[in-house]
From TrEMBL:
One of its GO terms (molecular function) is 3-oxoacyl-[acyl-carrier-protein] reductase (NADPH) activity. The keyword NADP applies. It catalyses: acetyl-CoA + n malonyl-CoA + 2n NADPH + 4n H(+) = a long-chain-acyl-CoA + n CoA + n CO2 + 2n NADP(+); a (3R)-hydroxyacyl-[ACP] + NADP(+) = a 3-oxoacyl-[ACP] + NADPH + H(+). PANTHER family: FATTY ACID SYNTHASE SUBUNIT BETA, MALONYL COA-ACYL CARRIER PROTEIN TRANSACYLASE. GO terms for biological process: fatty acid metabolic process. This is Fatty acid synthase alpha subunit FasA. Keywords: Fatty acid metabolism, Lipid biosynthesis, Lipid metabolism, Multifunctional enzyme, NADP, Oxidoreductase, Phosphopantetheine, Phosphoprotein, Transferase. The lineage of its organism: Eukaryota, Fungi, Dikarya, Ascomycota, Pezizomycotina. The keyword Phosphoprotein applies. Belongs to the thiolase-like superfamily. Fungal fatty acid synthetase subunit alpha family.
Length: 147
């Protein structure tokens, strides 16, 4: 086949394929229904230059599936590769280790809560009666909550 005819056929094929692509429906709504309702997908990651389909999926979730997700306790994530790479790869920031205290301060730390407690509002008898026990427990609980 001659190159001119080959080029003309390639051009015609390209135009026909593009026309078919633009004329065919995308059926994005039905695709979302399958992904979100039938498969109950909880994590969707869009890989592309922009968060286009993820944005549409977020709007669909908010308008159509919010009550369904709340009723079935489904928590979904719509992530985009460009923005959410740390969450996609489960990268976490390194945790800074706390400096260790010298051993001489450790016994004082165990007594610190007792030193910070305010005085009890009621005088506590040394041997409470059984009837006074709920009052004593309430007083002690309130002291613990104040701390």
């Amino acid at each position: 086949m001659r190159p001119e005819i080959e080029q003309e056929l390639a051009h015609t094929l390209l135009v026909e394929l593009l026309a078919y692509q633009f004329a065919s429906p995308v059926r994005w709504i039905e695709t979302q229904d399958v992904i979100l309702a039938e498969k109950r997908t909880e994590r969707i990651v869009e890989i592309g230059p922009a968060d286009t389909l993820g944005g549409m999926a977020k709007r669909t979730l908010a308008s159509k599936y919010e009550a369904y997700d709340a009723a079935t306790s489904v928590q979904r994530q719509i992530l985009c590769y460009n923005k959410d790479a740390k969450e996609i790869y489960y990268d976490v920031d390194p945790v800074e280790e706390e400096p260790e205290l010298p051993p001489s301060l450790l016994p004082l730390l165990h007594r610190l809560p007792l030193l910070l407690l305010p005085p009890l509002p009621l005088p506590l008898p040394l041997r409470p009666l059984v009837l006074d026990l709920p009052l004593l427990l309430t007083t002690l609980k309130s002291q613990l909550w104040i701390f």
